[in-house]
């Protein structure tokens, strides 16, 4: 079950978030005190057992809260397995593909809505539910002799539905045993009871809960399919030595008085998670700690388990973690760096490491333990700044962890870091801003319309190094036109061949070439530049994704003149590499990979090798050849290496392998770009250029 839309109202600083669409891996970006944490915590109110605190209700909405109000509501899409489960239990209902959950300020329970499906609220005695099963039991007991009836304890059937199969089986077995003892002289009565007891319909797995169709469905969703929101916040750092006496007192709840009241959990939580990952049992450790050999064996096994579970999220050289027991009931955490050649260095206590290292280690310990303990699957994970204090390399390590979790879970997280933004699709990137006058949080689905300062992490992610020029409108108004390309390779080729051709009539010099971070970045990057006064053009390859970008540009008021596809003689090309003659491009390919793959049996490729392959463009055909040799350890074809080779040779003026055909084909691209710029200057007035800036202001 995945959350697709949500809305929060009257919760802390949020009056009304409006309806927000979210993806499977969604980032909330905003300045401090903007309401990111509030958004995440509000969503936890949709958990089945969560309680609403009066302190969390918005003080400024007391009048509105005098009546029942939906504080948080979420619309969820069910997967095919979940749809089938409901259909199996409720065959008379149409397929339920969406469910809306909401919690109000007056009802303590989460409530459900099921699209436009009509559900009966009338009592249904034909429903295979616990309530009707209990009614059947009481009906049967009314038929047996009174001297037996008065001896039978029916408390089990007077209570709520059992929590699980074990409780049901235990209660039924106990009741049946007592019934047999009481009715031992009445074989006919025992026979009738046996029919009820052994009926497949009356097995716990088949029983619903509720007397009406609507109640039964709601209770079934609550018990079997209700989504889980798991919230992760700050954790305490652990250091090199752990006092097990102090830890065990903490575990038993024997806390000492402190001068300050601390609401969040302390280091015991992190230590508990450390031992959980290591699968280290304190009782077992206590038994063997007086025997050095047994203690070392136990801790070595625990250390290896711990290391194995931590390293997948650890970037850079792997680490090895040793747990060592010392006199005085002290557990030491010793860290070593493990290098690629197998050597081990920098062995020492965790407290010798830098603060950032200790924070990273503690975070990964806590996150890995919590996710594994919960056996998270199809959960919605809420993370509050999971990468704070981390170096970008380690942030990327956390990002890999989040991406892996997003395969079987939905991940929503708050961040300030451009290195923690993976997707620029609206719904996967949301901006939270605070209106200081009204003290309200506002969420931008179309994030490019948010304040420039709030957008700083996004802008750095979209095009690092270009931020200052983007947000300065004066630079945009007075600068040369810019052309946005989809990859760094495109930018390198445009600039390198401009130098190679040395043709002032079709030079790229009047343009600023801007390489987008990735294809997702092209659309918002173009909008940002256009909105800040730049004459903006976009150069696209002929992929399906690029065609979608072209349509989105039109939807955002870009003219067709501003979108340029690679083409030659009226035929669209798949990539900029297709402007290079086939023989010319194969030269650097063979030069690069003859050296790189000498041990793997690489032999020079010929034009016939390429033309014999099916595919759109030279890059796709080369990738197919590499795919055919994957068992020979060729790896993947990297066109960026070839780009660097060609551009470097142009810089060094060692271009004998580039033919006049390649020069002419690149000239055709530059003529196309120049013609579009002239067309745009003829049809667009300064009034048009100013319009977007005024709309932004």
Note the topology.
Blueprint lengths: L1 E10 L2 E3 L3 E2 L3 E5 L6 H8 L26 E8 L2 H10 L8 E7 L6 E3 L16 H12 L4 H4 L5 H4 L6 H18 L4 H12 L14 H13 L3 E4 L8 E3 H8 L15 H12 L3 H7 L3 H19 L8 E8 L3 E9 L5 E6 L5 H19 L6 E5 L7 H14 L4 E6 L13 E7 L4 E5 L11 H7 L4 H5 L1 H6 L3 E4 L2 H14 L10 E4 L3 H13 L4 E5 L3 H12 L7 E3 L1 E2 L2 E2 L9 H15 L10 H5 L5 H12 L10 H13 L8 H24 L2 H11 L1
Parallel strand pairs: 4-14, 4-15, 8-13, 13-14, 17-18, 17-19, 19-20
Antiparallel strand pairs: 1-2, 1-3, 1-5, 5-6, 6-7, 9-11, 10-11, 11-12, 15-16, 21-22
Instruction: Kindly report how far apart the N and C termini lie.
Output: 41 Å
> What shape does the CA trace take?
globular
**Mean of pLDDT:** 84
**How helical, in percent, are the residues?**
40-55%
Which structural class best describes the helix and strand composition? alpha/beta
Task: Please summarize the sheet with the most strands.
Answer: 6 strands, antiparallel
Strand content: 15-25%
What is the number of E strands? 22
Low-confidence stretches: 258-265
Please compute the radius of gyration using only Cα atoms.
33 Å
